[in-house]
Amino acid sequence: MSTTHVLGYPRIGKQRELKFALESYWRGDSSQQELLQVGKNIRQQNWQAQKDSGQAWVTVGDFAWYDQVLNTSLLLGNLPKRHQSEQINLDSMFAIARGQQGCGCNHAASDMSKWFNTNYHYIVPEFSEDSVFSLQWQQLFDEIREAFEQGHAVKPVILGPVSYLYLGKNDDQAASNFDRLSLLPQLLTVYREIFQAIADLGVEWVQVDEPILGLELDSQWQDALLAAYKTKLSPTKLLLTSYFADVLDNAEVIKQLAVDGLHLDLSAAPQQLEQVLTWLPEAWVLSAGVINGRNVWRANLPEIIENYSSLKVRLGERLWLASSCSLLHSPLDLESETDLGDAKYRLAFAEQKLSELQILDEALNGEADALRLSRQYSAALQNLNKKNNSSLQQRISALTPAERERTLSFEQRQEIQQKSLQLPPLPTTTIGSFPQTNEIRRQRREYKAGQLSQADYDAALAQHIKDAIERQERLDLDVLVHGEAERNDMVEYFAELLDGFIASRFGWVQSYGSRCVKPAIIVDDIERAKPLTIEWSSYAQSLTNKPVKGMLTGPVTILTWSFAREDISRAQIAEQIAIALNDEVAELQQAGIQVIQIDEPAIREGMPLKRSQWDDYLNWAVSAFKLSAASAKPETQIHTHMCYSEFNDIMPAVAALDADVLTIETSRSAMSLLQAFEHFEYPNEIGPGVYDIHSPNIPSIDDIKALIDKAAQWIPLQRLWVNPDCGLKTRNWQETEAALNNMVLATKELRASFS
């Protein structure tokens, strides 16, 4: 038989049990023991599902209370300096991730960043020349013992040492010439201890993730991989694992490494297989990642069987079948979905992907029932018709270059907007969303369940929006938002209104910590059949004389944060969404909305891992954004927002978006990201985040003033806006009003100081 396995499994639970347990614990409503029990229950369910589907091992070490990179930091005893006085335990983990509360100290949360080109986040490790590593956090070993005690065959997974260094950053006190790769020898010593401890528990294989192998690494990082793996690092067998891209740029390095197997993502990069087989060492196993861990479509099992049957003969037991990457990026179980219609038969969530691996394994080993079942899969897919909208395609083809651009330059628009909006220096605003209170969520549930009438639900939404406007006016913010009480999610909301999408009920995916998102699914051509935001934006504007932003999610973000169809290109999908948004912008203007924000927090995330592929992506991504805003008149101020973005290497593309105001997430980096804007001489207006909305901590007036002063070192005051890092959906009103009050007071003090 072949060996089948997955690289990781969703850890939120079928009913998001981990989310609710974490938030209950953080509120002080439940004990640590209760939290630990929820985690144990989820692990047991996950392991049993893998065992029941015939996987060779259960994957252990993929469970995390916040994220797997933070797990690794604690395992290595690598805490940020401001947290090093704390014992390593669950509470110190949460302090690093969320900030230390109520201690009167400056224990700020660590930076979060996106996990390569996914919507999953990780806590960024921090390094300095005096960093010291030692084996500390025991969770990995405890869970290996736990899985063995339950009778499972165990394959632990651990983030490799070179990727761990690559994904980190130098802390603020690190010397300017400090190279964190100088820490590798010390780090390898601790990794050897970890691998020895794993071997002592009776483990045969360890999955060591080095996802940077999918990047176009320079010689410095390639040499680091050689230093780490040129001699045997572990007494166990090591499966060297990479995903999201091909490994061909690093092939000369990989084949020199003292490992025992290689995992390839053959869903993202099937073309690499032929070349890898020309140099794959004869003693290595090949783990073929043929089941897509990042999308929700059923695999074409007959095609995979046909493509891999000869490889099975050639490699025999050295061929393993696997998910392309961790199934963390997939929803958990399709069976609970009852509202997807025929589209359900096209889909496979994590549990169904386990079944697909089992069918492939049996079919490649000649079992007739599995071959018959795989053909049934294929027939079901072929019988489901997709619709393609020819009128939409004709409209896109007929667009002229002038219809894809704003009519005037930024300098011309800025002068018109300043006269029209009459905003003070350092205008204050928020990013869009306000707290989604329990009352809002309850009313939405009751409405969807038919327990609340349309009229009553609309009245409730109107009251929430009125309340949000009144709060902002009391705070004396300059540009207001309606608060998005009607929106469940910044992508799902639009997906429910646009043709071409379907939405699951329970298809949750972890984004970070307790934060889960439910990506929509793109099944057909996308079209705007009715207005998306006009009603509530117009209502909010009617309540105030101050400008209220119309809030839209941009085309690249809607695409990136959805499960996209795979029969047309991502560029084509983004253009379809952009046309719909273009129509919405035109109608918002007609309704009297002078400021419109088109959020693109995912534009950096959507980039390919290979730099050589960036230009093509950025060309169509920028084009889609510009098309979505092209109907804006010169007096309409277009904002956009980006999160977790390293801008240095894409500044020309950011500038090419030509948004009048760009708001970005910078507070956790203490404004250091803004250096990129100074060096590039970014021409338009910028709103760098002045406080971290992911932490419940309330920023002081002095802290906010210090960040604004720091931002002013790189951005001229006449082009500087003041705003939080991101939307405030996950905060409560008490935290929100206290933080925004300090933000407005800090801004007014600064205005007075330079007036």
Automatic annotation (TrEMBL):
The keyword Transferase applies. Zn(2+) binds at H641, C643, E665, C726. L-homocysteine binds at I431, G432, S433, E484, D599. Gene3D superfamilies: 3.20.20.210. L-methionine binds at I431, G432, S433, E484, D599. Belongs to the vitamin-B12 independent methionine synthase family. Catalyzes the transfer of a methyl group from 5-methyltetrahydrofolate to homocysteine resulting in methionine formation. This is 5-methyltetrahydropteroyltriglutamate--homocysteine methyltransferase. It comes from Agarivorans albus MKT 106.
